[in-house]
């Protein structure tokens, strides 16, 4: 039995997207139960809309207060105890039988609450975000850290590599994830002092399959399964890649509408453009998991619809059922000798 | 009279691209003279091919040795004195009547030679690269530093902002360049300690038009004229943006060829795709200028063809004729009071 909390407030689509997404995941996995935190009335109404009646598998915790991007993270934790997010974190912390939480709410508050209220896995220096992107060769690539830690050291980078590798093995069945270190060039000697010092550590580590430095242009190439970076440059990497893809699609659309013959041509290619738009739609790839906390945390994009929430809940389910945290703990204790 | 050195070795297309590009620029600007360094025989042959005979405007310095990406930068300077690049730098250093140099050769060696052999403008802490990218609204955006300085402090970041602003004013006629600080979010408090400390300095500086923090996804949006960053994240920003655009175009092409009806549709859109490909072609936007050195240095991409070299020579010409370095010096001495 896997028990996951779903925070029904904070995202753009409230209980509707969160309940529908969680229900879809429950239909897929018989041993998945969900605890909803949010406006109990709204949650019940959405469950009814979905035609979900197996009430033994759900629990509803009334917490109608919402944390927004405007709330200062530490204030949110202290002052908004009745919010869906903080109540969820409290249950996660106190109830041993609850395994994880999915939230599309404010990132800052979630990271703060998770790191302050939920413990870290033994030996983990810092939890790190690891979102998943599609590659052009049809696979996926994880990026860790993508924004939880602005400043890191080599030890943290190596831990990100280990945690990310275990995640890709456990949740996506990738046998020996090819790990790259984000850098300004592929040569061994490239980069700042941090990268230069990290390179030999990565090379020597027997717990990862190190494939060398990666230039950011190769993120979508399919050559790597996991890219390791500090949270600042990881954030730049992901958002610029997404931004460029979005701007390209916008340009295509604008250009197609600029001439009659382009519009005619585009009618032949409707299904192609639809497929490409779908391919670039982050909703299909779930959320950004936080690696290294004792309990599972998955952060969905604020604009997540039901399909994205479903993927987030699935990610949490697979992290738990694959025994991810236990494996991270065991690898780290082999390294640190305790 | 503006005198620019053009290094004819080091890029993928040798004397052919470099001579043709320089000749095209000379045809545009009557008061532009060029000194070619490289294999004198090859340079002469290429000049003849271009039908250029105004030999009073060119000088050829025989330097047939080439610096490659394999050469360690400091070794290249010391051991390859007869190379086209190092001979060029020597002339630039010693001859007061020579204003700048364009090279498509190895970046590391060029940066090392420029910073070690050519002085910095008074008060400049560190020279910084500033490439130019096209925006989706039809304009351009500069990014500085894009890779010359892996580790920077707030003072350097502010200088990058000032030098980049003056460059965009002088060489591109942008009246009040909107300057953004690359960060992980737009809010004032975002980022690492460096960005947090830089923000108020940028806000208070009267020599730049500060528009706040920028998320990397907005690089191509047209909202900003200049993005300021450390060389590591700037490099990640540019290469991931370019990489994503290239991968998108590849995907489009692959998908079009996957079905007969897509191929038919694409025949209607040929001119559109050609325009878009041209738009994304960095060859049309010249090179990456090094801001802050006493003499002008423009680094062209290794794969530069004649059109790209032409743009690089033009950039060098406009930097010189707009009096850029004098203006940078005067702004900095107002700030530092000397």
Keywords:
homodimer; 338 residues; alpha/beta; Isopropylmalate Dehydrogenase; 47% helix; globular
Task: Give an overview of the whole structure.
- Two copies of one chain form a homodimer.
- The first copy, chain A, is an alpha/beta fold.
- Chain A has twelve helices and twelve strands.
- In chain A, the strands form two sheets. Chain A has a seven-stranded mixed β-sheet, with helices on both faces. Chain A has a five-stranded mixed β-sheet with strand order 6-7-10-8-9, with helices on both faces.
- In chain A, strand 6 and strand 7 form a beta hairpin.
- The relative contact order of chain A is 0.17.
Write the layout of secondary structure elements.
The structure is a homodimer of 338-residue chains.
Chain A lengths: L1 E6 L6 H15 L3 E7 L1 H10 L8 E5 L10 H7 L4 H11 L5 E4 L3 H11 L10 E3 L1 E3 L5 E5 L9 H19 L5 E5 L10 H12 L4 E6 L11 E3 L2 H26 L3 H9 L1 H11 L7 E4 L4 E4 L6 H16 L2 H13 L2
Parallel strand pairs in A: 1-2, 1-4, 2-3, 4-12, 7-10, 8-9, 8-10
Antiparallel strand pairs in A: 5-11, 6-7, 11-12
Helix pairs in contact in A: 1-2, 1-11, 3-5, 4-5, 6-7, 6-12
